[in-house]
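Reopening: P1 family peptidase still failing for me.
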Amino acid sequence: MSQPFDFPRIGVLPGGPLDSLADVAGVTVGHHTLAAGAVQTGVTVIRPHDGDLFLNKLPAGLAVLNGFGKSMGLLQMQELGQLETAIVLGSTMAVGTLATALTREAIARHPQIGRDWPTVNPLVLECNDGYLNDAQAFAVQASDMTLALASTDADFAQGSVGAGRGMSAFGLKGGIGSASRQVEGYLVAALVLANFGRPEALTIRGRCIGPLLQQRLRDADKTAGPEKGSIILILATDAPLDARQLSRLARRAGAGLARTGSDYGHGSGDIALAFSTAYKLPHSARVPMPAIAMLHEARLDPLFQAGAEACEQAIVKALFAASTVEGRDGRRRVGLSELAPDWRELLS
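Support: Ran it again with your exact input. Result attached.
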């Protein structure tokens, strides 16, 4: 269940009732967290609707801001513009295990997959949590994905949970963050897996507070180094957009990311994905395709603004929701709320 936490409000657009990805009707999120000594990792699952995604797919678009990543399923998703499984987030070296688990889950519902029917395209996205987590332990098992999937709900936790457990951002504790924005009768919502950023670059509400926070970190690296890590940005909307328009929306996630101080460094894998719940695409060729009037291109600007704001807000929430975690070899990442309880003064 979610826990309340304080955080700075980003932007000018109103948020949804939950200020999370679940404000888009039918979207739910679940986590399973592994936190024991050197193992600090987990799985997060986004269920885009509560039906059978293989039989009733959703339109989706992709934007690769920087391709330093090891995700699975993106190529076919980009080609067809469709989601046909839940979206699974995890650590880099768990991608294979999670993809197999997601494939087995689909086969359990539809034994025809890979035999009489085409194979399924499991969608697994990753960030490297190896600073805090012992990645070589291969701790994540198929059952962890199953538990995360079973726990999906509109009320979900943020911060150092699920796939976000071992993540770092700006030299601080990173993790899961989510936010939403309402505009012209539509919702645009974001969920991020934040594991990126140079400590001195952290910018919140236009104010670069990274150098101030760096001075407070006991083991801070005082030199400006390259940006490493990654971020996964997931956007959901109830606006009627096609796959091409959703790719355009996904690219605007980069605006929100940049405002926090990222320049998409060489070693940072920055992947954005957007999907719409406004209509479903049938698996069976015998079922008619939906006749939907798509939103006019000239009406996309407000959605672009909403997407950028929601992503920026989600990153900020990931930082403020994250609790301090100690992992392998005594390594430690401190939560921003613990490091800067005076954040209101810092941002004033």
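The domain at 21-287+302-347 is CATH 3.60.70.12 (L-amino peptidase D-ALA esterase/amidase). If you still see a failure, please send the error message rather than a screenshot.
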